[in-house]
Design a protein that fits this description.
Layout: E1 2-7, H1 17-34, E2 38-41, H2 55-65, E3 70-77, H3 83-96, E4 101-106, H4 113-119, H5 123-128, H6 130-141, E5 160-165, H7 168-177, E6 181-183, H8 193-203, E7 215-223, H9 227-233, H10 235-245, H11 255-261, H12 265-277, E8 279-281, H13 283-296, E9 301-305, H14 311-324
Parallel strand pairs: 1-2, 1-9, 2-3, 3-4, 4-5, 5-6, 6-7, 7-8, 7-9
Helix pairs in contact: 1-2, 1-14, 2-3, 3-6, 7-8
Length: 334
Protein backbone atom coordinates (compact mmCIF):
# COMPACT_ATOMS: atom_id res chain seq x y z
CA UNK A 1 0.00 0.00 0.00
CA UNK A 2 1.34 3.41 -0.98
CA UNK A 3 0.53 6.33 1.28
CA UNK A 4 0.43 9.92 0.10
CA UNK A 5 -0.43 13.32 1.59
CA UNK A 6 -2.80 16.13 0.68
CA UNK A 7 -1.92 19.34 2.50
CA UNK A 8 -4.15 22.43 2.44
CA UNK A 9 -2.11 24.98 4.45
CA UNK A 10 -4.64 25.42 7.26
CA UNK A 11 -4.66 28.73 9.14
CA UNK A 12 -4.84 28.30 12.91
CA UNK A 13 -6.19 30.72 15.48
CA UNK A 14 -3.39 32.51 17.32
CA UNK A 15 -0.88 32.21 14.47
CA UNK A 16 -0.45 34.14 11.23
CA UNK A 17 -1.69 32.72 7.95
CA UNK A 18 1.85 32.92 6.60
CA UNK A 19 2.91 30.38 9.24
CA UNK A 20 0.55 27.87 7.62
CA UNK A 21 2.55 28.09 4.40
CA UNK A 22 5.84 27.49 6.18
CA UNK A 23 4.32 24.59 8.11
CA UNK A 24 3.36 23.01 4.80
CA UNK A 25 7.03 22.98 3.77
CA UNK A 26 8.10 21.48 7.11
CA UNK A 27 5.45 18.79 6.75
CA UNK A 28 6.66 17.89 3.26
CA UNK A 29 10.19 17.29 4.55
CA UNK A 30 8.82 15.23 7.44
CA UNK A 31 6.61 13.07 5.22
CA UNK A 32 9.40 12.43 2.74
CA UNK A 33 11.58 11.15 5.60
CA UNK A 34 8.78 8.73 6.53
CA UNK A 35 8.52 7.25 3.03
CA UNK A 36 5.30 8.82 1.76
CA UNK A 37 4.86 8.47 -2.01
CA UNK A 38 3.31 11.83 -2.97
CA UNK A 39 2.84 15.24 -1.41
CA UNK A 40 -0.08 17.07 -2.98
CA UNK A 41 -1.14 20.68 -2.42
CA UNK A 42 -4.61 22.15 -2.80
CA UNK A 43 -5.81 25.44 -4.29
CA UNK A 44 -8.41 27.61 -2.56
CA UNK A 45 -9.25 31.30 -2.78
CA UNK A 46 -10.81 33.83 -0.46
CA UNK A 47 -11.06 31.45 2.51
CA UNK A 48 -9.80 32.33 6.01
CA UNK A 49 -9.12 28.68 6.87
CA UNK A 50 -7.60 27.02 3.80
CA UNK A 51 -4.94 29.52 2.71
CA UNK A 52 -2.93 27.55 0.14
CA UNK A 53 -3.86 29.71 -2.83
CA UNK A 54 -0.90 29.00 -5.16
CA UNK A 55 0.03 25.28 -5.25
CA UNK A 56 2.46 25.72 -8.13
CA UNK A 57 4.60 28.09 -6.04
CA UNK A 58 4.46 25.81 -3.01
CA UNK A 59 5.42 22.88 -5.23
CA UNK A 60 8.59 24.68 -6.29
CA UNK A 61 9.47 25.34 -2.65
CA UNK A 62 8.84 21.68 -1.76
CA UNK A 63 10.97 20.58 -4.72
CA UNK A 64 13.84 22.69 -3.36
CA UNK A 65 13.66 20.87 -0.02
CA UNK A 66 12.81 17.31 -1.02
CA UNK A 67 14.53 14.86 -3.35
CA UNK A 68 12.47 11.66 -3.55
CA UNK A 69 8.78 12.28 -2.87
CA UNK A 70 6.46 13.03 -5.79
CA UNK A 71 5.05 16.57 -5.69
CA UNK A 72 1.68 17.56 -7.08
CA UNK A 73 -1.31 19.84 -7.18
CA UNK A 74 -4.65 18.62 -5.90
CA UNK A 75 -5.42 20.53 -7.64
CA UNK A 76 -5.06 23.39 -10.04
CA UNK A 77 -8.58 24.70 -10.61
CA UNK A 78 -8.13 24.79 -14.35
CA UNK A 79 -11.12 26.96 -15.43
CA UNK A 80 -9.48 29.93 -13.70
CA UNK A 81 -6.49 29.84 -16.03
CA UNK A 82 -5.05 29.54 -19.49
CA UNK A 83 -4.07 25.94 -20.22
CA UNK A 84 -0.88 27.22 -21.87
CA UNK A 85 0.20 29.10 -18.76
CA UNK A 86 -0.45 26.07 -16.54
CA UNK A 87 1.52 23.89 -18.96
CA UNK A 88 4.46 26.31 -18.83
CA UNK A 89 4.40 26.40 -15.03
CA UNK A 90 4.41 22.63 -14.77
CA UNK A 91 7.08 22.21 -17.41
CA UNK A 92 9.26 24.46 -15.23
CA UNK A 93 8.40 22.34 -12.20
CA UNK A 94 9.29 19.20 -14.14
CA UNK A 95 12.69 20.73 -14.87
CA UNK A 96 13.18 21.38 -11.14
CA UNK A 97 12.13 17.88 -10.04
CA UNK A 98 12.42 15.56 -13.06
CA UNK A 99 10.08 12.60 -13.01
CA UNK A 100 8.38 13.66 -9.76
CA UNK A 101 5.66 16.12 -10.80
CA UNK A 102 1.91 15.44 -10.74
CA UNK A 103 -0.56 17.92 -12.22
CA UNK A 104 -3.90 17.29 -10.56
CA UNK A 105 -6.64 19.38 -12.17
CA UNK A 106 -10.14 20.14 -10.99
CA UNK A 107 -13.22 21.79 -12.43
CA UNK A 108 -14.64 23.22 -9.20
CA UNK A 109 -13.78 26.85 -8.35
CA UNK A 110 -12.15 26.20 -4.97
CA UNK A 111 -13.81 29.43 -3.89
CA UNK A 112 -17.17 31.16 -3.81
CA UNK A 113 -18.42 32.48 -7.13
CA UNK A 114 -17.43 36.05 -6.29
CA UNK A 115 -13.78 35.04 -6.03
CA UNK A 116 -14.14 32.74 -9.06
CA UNK A 117 -15.39 35.62 -11.22
CA UNK A 118 -12.50 37.80 -10.08
CA UNK A 119 -10.06 35.08 -11.08
CA UNK A 120 -11.82 34.63 -14.41
CA UNK A 121 -14.77 36.84 -15.45
CA UNK A 122 -15.90 33.99 -17.73
CA UNK A 123 -15.87 31.41 -14.94
CA UNK A 124 -19.11 29.69 -15.94
CA UNK A 125 -18.16 29.30 -19.60
CA UNK A 126 -14.62 28.26 -18.68
CA UNK A 127 -15.93 25.36 -16.63
CA UNK A 128 -17.69 24.02 -19.71
CA UNK A 129 -14.35 24.02 -21.56
CA UNK A 130 -12.64 21.91 -18.88
CA UNK A 131 -12.32 18.74 -21.02
CA UNK A 132 -10.79 20.69 -23.92
CA UNK A 133 -8.35 22.38 -21.54
CA UNK A 134 -7.11 18.96 -20.39
CA UNK A 135 -6.62 17.84 -23.99
CA UNK A 136 -4.57 20.96 -24.63
CA UNK A 137 -2.56 20.39 -21.46
CA UNK A 138 -1.71 16.87 -22.57
CA UNK A 139 -0.22 18.15 -25.81
CA UNK A 140 1.70 21.06 -24.33
CA UNK A 141 3.05 19.03 -21.40
CA UNK A 142 4.28 16.40 -23.84
CA UNK A 143 6.28 19.07 -25.67
CA UNK A 144 4.05 19.03 -28.74
CA UNK A 145 3.19 22.20 -30.65
CA UNK A 146 -0.45 23.24 -30.42
CA UNK A 147 -2.03 26.26 -32.10
CA UNK A 148 1.47 27.00 -33.37
CA UNK A 149 2.88 27.31 -29.83
CA UNK A 150 5.18 25.11 -27.72
CA UNK A 151 5.22 25.15 -23.91
CA UNK A 152 8.78 25.59 -22.72
CA UNK A 153 11.03 24.35 -21.25
CA UNK A 154 10.88 21.03 -23.03
CA UNK A 155 12.42 17.98 -21.39
CA UNK A 156 12.74 14.22 -21.53
CA UNK A 157 9.79 13.71 -19.19
CA UNK A 158 6.39 15.25 -18.66
CA UNK A 159 4.24 15.78 -15.55
CA UNK A 160 1.52 13.21 -14.93
CA UNK A 161 -2.00 14.62 -15.23
CA UNK A 162 -4.59 13.48 -12.67
CA UNK A 163 -8.28 14.29 -12.91
CA UNK A 164 -9.70 15.19 -9.50
CA UNK A 165 -13.35 14.96 -8.59
CA UNK A 166 -16.05 14.10 -6.09
CA UNK A 167 -18.77 13.04 -8.54
CA UNK A 168 -19.38 10.85 -11.56
CA UNK A 169 -18.40 13.67 -13.94
CA UNK A 170 -14.68 13.58 -13.16
CA UNK A 171 -14.62 9.79 -13.11
CA UNK A 172 -16.11 9.53 -16.59
CA UNK A 173 -13.88 12.26 -17.98
CA UNK A 174 -10.73 10.61 -16.62
CA UNK A 175 -11.86 7.29 -18.06
CA UNK A 176 -12.55 8.83 -21.48
CA UNK A 177 -9.12 10.50 -21.61
CA UNK A 178 -7.20 7.53 -20.23
CA UNK A 179 -5.89 9.44 -17.20
CA UNK A 180 -5.43 8.65 -13.49
CA UNK A 181 -8.32 9.65 -11.23
CA UNK A 182 -8.48 10.79 -7.59
CA UNK A 183 -11.78 10.90 -5.71
CA UNK A 184 -12.16 13.45 -2.89
CA UNK A 185 -13.58 11.03 -0.33
CA UNK A 186 -13.29 13.56 2.49
CA UNK A 187 -15.63 16.08 0.82
CA UNK A 188 -18.77 14.18 1.78
CA UNK A 189 -17.50 11.26 3.86
CA UNK A 190 -17.23 9.02 0.82
CA UNK A 191 -20.70 9.52 -0.61
CA UNK A 192 -20.72 8.27 -4.20
CA UNK A 193 -17.22 6.79 -4.18
CA UNK A 194 -18.23 3.25 -5.15
CA UNK A 195 -20.18 4.39 -8.20
CA UNK A 196 -17.51 6.85 -9.31
CA UNK A 197 -14.74 4.24 -9.17
CA UNK A 198 -16.96 1.65 -10.87
CA UNK A 199 -17.67 4.05 -13.74
CA UNK A 200 -14.02 4.99 -14.02
CA UNK A 201 -12.82 1.39 -14.24
CA UNK A 202 -15.66 0.16 -16.45
CA UNK A 203 -15.44 3.00 -18.98
CA UNK A 204 -11.64 3.33 -18.97
CA UNK A 205 -10.04 3.80 -22.38
CA UNK A 206 -6.36 2.80 -22.26
CA UNK A 207 -3.86 5.48 -23.26
CA UNK A 208 -0.23 5.14 -24.28
CA UNK A 209 1.04 6.48 -20.97
CA UNK A 210 -1.62 4.82 -18.81
CA UNK A 211 -2.63 1.45 -20.29
CA UNK A 212 -4.42 0.52 -17.06
CA UNK A 213 -6.75 2.61 -14.87
CA UNK A 214 -5.06 4.18 -11.86
CA UNK A 215 -7.31 5.40 -9.07
CA UNK A 216 -6.92 6.68 -5.54
CA UNK A 217 -9.03 8.45 -2.96
CA UNK A 218 -8.24 11.18 -0.46
CA UNK A 219 -9.49 10.59 3.09
CA UNK A 220 -9.33 12.74 6.21
CA UNK A 221 -7.69 10.97 9.13
CA UNK A 222 -6.15 11.86 12.49
CA UNK A 223 -4.12 9.40 14.53
CA UNK A 224 -2.71 9.85 18.03
CA UNK A 225 -1.25 7.57 20.67
CA UNK A 226 -4.69 7.01 22.19
CA UNK A 227 -8.28 7.26 21.01
CA UNK A 228 -8.94 9.96 23.59
CA UNK A 229 -6.05 12.12 22.38
CA UNK A 230 -7.09 11.78 18.74
CA UNK A 231 -10.72 12.61 19.51
CA UNK A 232 -9.61 15.66 21.50
CA UNK A 233 -7.50 17.07 18.66
CA UNK A 234 -10.23 16.27 16.11
CA UNK A 235 -12.47 18.77 17.90
CA UNK A 236 -10.84 21.56 15.86
CA UNK A 237 -12.04 20.20 12.54
CA UNK A 238 -15.39 19.10 13.96
CA UNK A 239 -16.09 22.64 15.16
CA UNK A 240 -14.99 24.03 11.80
CA UNK A 241 -17.35 21.73 9.88
CA UNK A 242 -20.28 22.67 12.08
CA UNK A 243 -19.52 26.37 11.72
CA UNK A 244 -19.03 26.12 7.95
CA UNK A 245 -22.47 24.55 7.56
CA UNK A 246 -23.87 27.61 9.33
CA UNK A 247 -21.96 30.10 7.19
CA UNK A 248 -19.29 30.90 9.77
CA UNK A 249 -15.72 30.65 8.51
CA UNK A 250 -12.47 31.35 10.27
CA UNK A 251 -9.12 29.87 11.28
CA UNK A 252 -8.93 26.49 12.97
CA UNK A 253 -9.56 26.86 16.69
CA UNK A 254 -7.64 25.17 19.50
CA UNK A 255 -9.30 21.98 20.80
CA UNK A 256 -8.99 23.13 24.41
CA UNK A 257 -11.18 26.17 23.71
CA UNK A 258 -13.73 24.02 21.87
CA UNK A 259 -13.87 21.45 24.65
CA UNK A 260 -14.44 24.25 27.15
CA UNK A 261 -17.25 25.73 25.03
CA UNK A 262 -18.90 22.40 24.28
CA UNK A 263 -21.64 21.66 21.72
CA UNK A 264 -25.37 22.15 21.87
CA UNK A 265 -27.83 19.27 21.50
CA UNK A 266 -28.32 19.67 17.74
CA UNK A 267 -24.57 19.81 17.18
CA UNK A 268 -23.98 16.71 19.29
CA UNK A 269 -26.49 14.82 17.14
CA UNK A 270 -24.64 15.86 13.97
CA UNK A 271 -21.30 14.88 15.45
CA UNK A 272 -22.51 11.46 16.53
CA UNK A 273 -23.21 10.45 12.94
CA UNK A 274 -19.97 12.00 11.63
CA UNK A 275 -17.84 10.37 14.30
CA UNK A 276 -19.14 6.93 13.43
CA UNK A 277 -17.68 7.35 9.91
CA UNK A 278 -14.47 9.15 10.91
CA UNK A 279 -10.91 7.83 10.72
CA UNK A 280 -9.95 9.22 14.11
CA UNK A 281 -8.21 7.36 16.93
CA UNK A 282 -5.18 5.32 17.85
CA UNK A 283 -3.43 3.19 15.21
CA UNK A 284 -5.29 0.15 16.55
CA UNK A 285 -8.58 1.91 15.83
CA UNK A 286 -7.85 3.66 12.53
CA UNK A 287 -5.52 1.36 10.61
CA UNK A 288 -8.01 -1.53 10.25
CA UNK A 289 -10.64 0.91 8.97
CA UNK A 290 -8.29 2.33 6.36
CA UNK A 291 -7.16 -1.11 5.24
CA UNK A 292 -10.74 -2.31 4.98
CA UNK A 293 -11.70 0.73 2.90
CA UNK A 294 -8.73 0.26 0.54
CA UNK A 295 -9.57 -3.43 0.15
CA UNK A 296 -13.25 -2.75 -0.50
CA UNK A 297 -12.41 -0.18 -3.18
CA UNK A 298 -9.52 -2.24 -4.63
CA UNK A 299 -6.95 0.50 -4.07
CA UNK A 300 -3.20 0.24 -3.74
CA UNK A 301 -2.74 3.88 -2.67
CA UNK A 302 -4.43 6.18 -0.18
CA UNK A 303 -3.99 9.95 0.02
CA UNK A 304 -4.43 11.27 3.56
CA UNK A 305 -5.40 14.79 4.63
CA UNK A 306 -4.94 15.73 8.29
CA UNK A 307 -5.85 18.90 10.14
CA UNK A 308 -4.74 19.77 13.67
CA UNK A 309 -4.32 23.05 15.49
CA UNK A 310 -0.87 21.99 16.69
CA UNK A 311 1.60 21.17 13.86
CA UNK A 312 3.32 18.63 16.10
CA UNK A 313 0.06 16.69 16.43
CA UNK A 314 -0.27 16.57 12.66
CA UNK A 315 3.29 15.33 12.19
CA UNK A 316 2.74 12.68 14.87
CA UNK A 317 -0.40 11.50 13.06
CA UNK A 318 1.50 11.03 9.79
CA UNK A 319 4.29 9.26 11.68
CA UNK A 320 1.90 6.78 13.28
CA UNK A 321 0.22 6.16 9.93
CA UNK A 322 3.55 5.51 8.22
CA UNK A 323 4.65 3.14 10.96
CA UNK A 324 1.34 1.31 10.84
CA UNK A 325 1.61 0.69 7.09
CA UNK A 326 5.28 -0.28 7.29
CA UNK A 327 6.81 2.58 5.32
CA UNK A 328 10.51 2.19 5.91
CA UNK A 329 12.23 4.30 3.28
CA UNK A 330 11.36 6.92 0.65
CA UNK A 331 9.43 5.36 -2.22
CA UNK A 332 10.94 5.68 -5.70
CA UNK A 333 9.38 8.18 -8.05
CA UNK A 334 6.76 6.82 -10.41
Amino acid sequence: MKLSVLDQSIACEGRGEDEAIRDTLDLAVHCESLGYHRFWLSEHHGLPTIVGSAPEILMAAVAARCSTIRIGSAGVMLPHYSALKVAEQFRVLEALAPGRIDLGVGRAPGADMRAARLLNPNAYAAAEAFPQQIVELQAWLAGEPLHGVVAHPRGARAPVIWVLGSSDYGAQLAAHLGLPYAFAYFFADGQGVEQALHLYRTLYRPSARHPQPQATICVWALLADSDADAQHHALSRERWRLDRARGRLGPLRAPEAIAHQGFDAAERAELQAARARAFVGSPATVLPKLRALADALQLDELVVNTWAHDPAVRRRSYTLLAQGFGLLSPAPAG
